[in-house]
Design goal:
Length: 246
């Protein structure tokens, strides 16, 4: 099982949109996929039509003391499953801190899912703390949606400083541009040559497209909502690029 996390210090940059669409693309590609909505706000749970809230005590689930797998919900898409958000997960960092497994706790917690899924997608809350440190151990790729703006690049640099990765670990972090508007000069320039601070960025990028916003109105991934939209094709390309490097 490959593990892909959508992560960024910042909110509102496209983590959830990418998590849901990449999951659906992988699923269309024939892979059994699980999305874990780690953000208490529950945006990917909403788009995938899931029901918010975990049945058992979150503390026990995260400690590995009750079976996380029993909280998995099926979605309208065959072999695309969901581990839904829970409001109590807003204390995720504290819960991970108090668990016994140290840096590798998350990795151990998700290991049993490899029996059933080829891909696990982690839709992370914004921020930079215990979860980020554990993602470095648990995820094969940390995808970082990045808006082409100086402040976003700065946020990316801060994240990399915090994570303090070795060379091989650095290769697992993959920034990609989201909300690209090719009418803007800076966007065109950065697509051509990304700033050194985020290089190497992924080749694929996601345009600004109102179809993406419609996902949370219609509760469907783009492949179903707007099969021929530019944004759909962009996420498909992102998935193909990601798949080739996993
Ligand atoms: N490429 C895009 N084009 C248009 N709107 C987008 C795009 N990516 C994200 N959005 C919108 O921006 C908002 C934040 O996106 P979301 O994926 O929820 O970000 P995050 O999970 O990082 O908070 C949502 O309303 C979403 O519809
Ligand atoms: Mg989100």
């Amino acid at each position: 099982m490959k593990v892909v996390a959508l992560h960024n210090l910042k909110g509102g940059v496209g983590k959830t949109s990418a998590a849901v669409n990449l999951a659906r693309e992988a699923n269309r590609d024939g892979m059994p996929v699980l999305v874990w909505d780690l953000d208490a706000q529950g945006a990917s749970t909403w788009v995938l039509g899931g029901e918010n809230g975990l049945g058992r005590k979150v503390k026990k689930l995260l400690a590995g003391k009750s079976p996380l797998g029993e909280e998995v919900q099926h979605t309208a898409w065959e072999r695309l499953d969901l581990l839904p958000a829970d409001l109590r997960m807003r204390e995720l960092d504290r819960l991970l801190d108090s668990a016994s497994g140290g840096d590798k706790h998350l990795k151990r917690l998700i290991a049993p899912f490899s029996e059933e899924y080829a891909l696990l997608i982690l839709d992370c809350p914004p921020g930079l703390s215990t979860l980020s440190d554990q993602l470095v151990r648990a995820a094969d790729r940390i995808l970082v949606p990045t808006i082409p703006s100086p402040l976003s690049v700065q946020a990316f640099s801060r994240m990399m400083d915090h994570l303090d990765l070795g060379k091989r670990q650095r290769q697992r972090v993959a920034p990609f541009f989201n909300l690209v508007d090719r009418r803007r000069k800076l966007h065109r320039e950065w697509l051509e040559t990304p700033p050194a601070a985020i290089a190497p960025a992924m080749q694929s990028w996601i345009p600004y497209a109102s179809d993406v916003e419609r996902m949370s109105l219609e509760c469907r991934p783009l492949a179903d909502l707007a099969p021929r939209s530019r944004a759909t094709l962009a996420y498909r390309q992102l998935w193909q690029e990601l798949k080739a490097t996993l």
